Give the backbone structure.
Amino acid sequence: MSHTPPSQEETCKLARSKDDRQNILVFPVDKASAARLSNSQSAQSAIATVKPAATNTAIAAGLVKKRYLHDAVNDTKSRLYSGPDVIASIAGVPLSQVNDAIRQVRFGASWPDLSYTPQIKWVLYSEIEKALYLLGYTGEWRWLRDQPTLAAYLKARTGKERDHPCVLSISNYYVAVSGGVFCDVSSRGIVVDIDDAEGRRKKVHRVFVVTTRIAPSPIASRKPVRKASPRGKLDQLFREAIKAETGAVRVKITPSEVFIIRHDGSGWYWLGSRDSVEDSILRPHSDHRLRGDTDEAASYRKAMGE
């Protein structure tokens, strides 16, 4: 869900169209202004219909959508934290992509090579700026020496801070504000009116103002876990056959050898070369150490097509 509320200086009323869920501003105008407005809207409609690429070019050229935020979409299994929440609300991307951007900021583009996926909870203000940069947004931080309350800051905003998307550092968390809409974790990532914002008496320490749109950067992500390959299934059946044939509790298979640990816990015992062990299971012999007469050995032979 997206919101486009009016500026605080504008005297307007909201009207909702049956075919459009976005809010439209209706201004009191005279006949001459109405004619100019009608001509302007017709021209804009023609441009949007005939040349849709022009709008995309304009966005790529640096335009930032004013008085607008996105609901933060949490597509992960973790809870919503304030830093990732405000980034998702401004950039309009799901939380999983935001977390990947923050991981890339912290660990570099090679972070998927780590043996684990770092969990993202609290973030630094500098990481918010860098993550937004990766997602295609630039801006600047401004420190507030007098540290006004949230209510006082929202009332006294001027310039770009009045209608551009902004990240506010409040106490030990972050919120997103743009014009008359607000988003934070207290609303569970849902965009609300600034009059409904919680924590209005808390101090605002610094503000990051989003000023420009840029081309987003590639963001590294972990590839989906692949399903077990047929070879992996065969290896598992091979291990089960060895355990059944020897009574081992653990099996270690290298490219050339097989080792087992028995119930007596006497340590690793060399069972033989991998080729010979496999041959004993695939071609049962009653006089061999591995006779190949267990159900597990039969399952392995069937899987191998023997």
